[in-house]
Structures
1.
Amino acid sequence: MSKDKPSRRQEEIVNAYFSFLNSHIESVISGASNDFLPLSEIAHQLHISHQHLTDTIKQANGQHPCYYYDLKIIEAAKEMLKASDKTVTEVAYTLTYDPSNFSKFFKKIVGVSPGTWQRENT
C-alpha cells in the first residue's frame, strides 16, 4: 500500500465508511435510529475486520475512525442547536447521549459548552 496514493480498495473502504457514518447520523437525527454505530458493525458490512477498517481510515486520513464519528456528531449538534428551538438536553437525547456526558464531550471538542455555543450562534 502506497502512502502517497491510496489503492482503489482503500478508497472504496473510506468512501463506504463515510457513507455509513453519514446515513447513521441522519437516521439518529430523524429518530429512525437510537443506537450507537460500532466500528465493528461497519467493518462487518464491508466484509473486513475491525482492525483493517481502522488501519485503512487512519492511513488514508491520519485519524482514527472514531474521530470522524465525533466530528459528525458535533456538526449535527451545532446544526440542531442553531436551527431549532431544542434545548441542549433535547439535542443530547436526540443524538443518543446522556446530557451531562454530551456537554462534556461537546466542550472537549468545541472548547465551549453547548449552551454557550448556542447563545453565541443563534
2.
Amino acid sequence: MVGIFMHTLLEQLTHGMPTQHTILPLDKQHNLDPYPLKPRLTFKANGTFKLTIFSDLHFGENPWDVWGPEQDANSTRVMKRVLGDERPDYVYVYGAISPISDMLFSREFSVLNGDLITGENTFKENATTLIDQIVKPLNDIEVPFSSSHGNHDNQANISHVDEILREQSVAPLSYTRMGPKGVGGEGGPGNYWVPIYRTKTDLAPVLILWFFDSRGGFSPGANSTRLPDWVDVSVADWIESETKIMDEAWGPAEKRGALAFVHIPPFIAQELQPGIDSKKDPGLNADLLEGLGSVQATTDPTSLGKDAIFWDALNKYIKNLHALISGHDHGNEWCVREPIKDVIFCFDKHSGYGGYTGDDWGYGVRNLLFTSPDPNKGVETWIRLEEGETRAHITLNRQYGYGHYLVETKFSGPEMGRKSIIHFYST
C-alpha cells in the first residue's frame, strides 16, 4: 500500500536526521513525495487553486425501493452539474512519452468529505460497487480528488478500508490512501496528507491538505460492534512526527499553508454553535449539535473529551492552518473562529439526496479558492447550491471572526455563462 510505502520512507529519513530546518538533499526530498506515480498537483499559472467539496452523499439507501436508486441518480446529477459549472480554466499537460509522474495538474481538486455510502443498507456482495457510481463523474472529466470517510461508511457490510481499496482500483486520479500501520485505531485507516506545489519543478509544496479519520459506525462482520467516534489518539503522535519530517525536508512550516478535513466535527463545534452570529458567520445553522453522535466522542457519554488529544496536536503542530472542515451535520454550513486555539472551523454543505434533510436546506457544495500560493493570504469560500445559487461568501484570513460581513447572495448558473461574483465587505 502507498501508505505503508510512505511510512517506510519516512522511517528511513528519521535516522541521522539533520538539525531542524536544515534542507535535506534533493534525493530525500523526492522520497518525501507520497505520490511518485501520480501527477503532481500545482497551483495554476495565475496563482490560484480551487477545491470543491462534496459531503454526505449517502449513496445506497434502500436499494430495494424505487426511491433509493432515485436518490442516487439525483446525487449524481448534483455532482455533474456542480462540476460542470464550477470547473475553472486550467492547464492540463500530458507529456506524450513521459512517465505519469512527470504530468502536471494545475486545475481544481475535489474532496469527498465522508459518508459516501449509507452502509446500513448495503449488501456484502456489492457494497463497494457504489464507489464506482460515486467517482464516475470525477473520472469522466479527469478531476483529481481525495476522500475522507464517516460513520455510515463503517458498517457490517462495508468499511473504510473496503471503500479506500475500491476507490484506488477504479479512480486513477484518486489521491486517497491509508496511513501507516498502527495509526488511526480500529476502523480509522484514512489519515494522510496531499502536497500541492506552486509549480511542477518546486522542491517543496506550498500547501498541505490533511485528511483525518473520525471513525464511528460499526465494525464489519456478523458480530459487528460499535466503533469509537473520534480521531484516535495515535494520530496525534503521527501529526507531530510528520510535521517534523516536513520541516526538516522542506524548511520552516511557516512557508506552507494547510487545510484539514475530518468528517465528524470535533467536540469544540458544539461549544461554538451558541455564539454563531449570522452576520459575522453566514450560512445555514439549522442543525443543533446536541444529540448523541452529533460531534466527536459523544455517541457514548463516557467517551466525552477523547478527541481533545487530536484537537490539541492539530493546532500545535500544523502551522498556517486556514481551517478545519467537517460534514456529518447536514443542516449546518457556517464557519466560525475558535478563540482559544485561534483557528477557523467550517462545515461543508450536504451534497447528496441520501441522508436526512430539512425544509429548504437544499443540496450543494462548499467551494474554496486560493487566490495566491502565499500561505499568509486568505482563502475565499462560499456555498454553491444545486441550481446555482451561491451564499455565505467569506474570506478565511487572520481577520475573519473579528469583524462583520455584508453578504450578497446572487444566482449563478450555466445560462449566465459564468459564476457570479459575491461582494463582501468587512466592517
3.
Amino acid sequence: MSIDQEKEIKRIWRTTTTALRVKAVKQLHSVLLTKCDISIDAFPKTSKYLAICIDLCWKMGVQERPMHVDADVETGDNSEKILDLNKFRPYTKSGKIVDFVVWPALFMHEGGPMHARGIAQGCNETD
C-alpha cells in the first residue's frame, strides 16, 4: 500500500468516526437528559457539561488502545477499602481507608501507565 493510499484511508476513517461520534453524542445526550429529567433550558451549563463528558468518553474509548478508567479500590484484611496514594490523591481528608471515590484514576490503556491519579476521600475508621 502506498503512502497516499494510507493517508486516504486515515482521512476517510477520521471523517467517518467524527460523523458517527457527533450523532452518537447527540443521541446519548438526549437519552441521559430525559432519564435524569434535566431540562436544557433550566440547566444549560449542566447540559453542556454532560455533552462534553460524553464526547470525551467516546474519544477515550475509540483509541487504538482504549484509555482505562479505574475506580476500583484494594480491599484489606477487614474488608476495608485501602487508600493507595500511588493511585489516588486525597480529596478533603486523608486517611488509610477510602470513604468514597470522587474521581477515578485514568490509565493510558488497561494495564498500562497511569495518565492521572484519581481522587478519593480518606478516613481512618470504618463507619
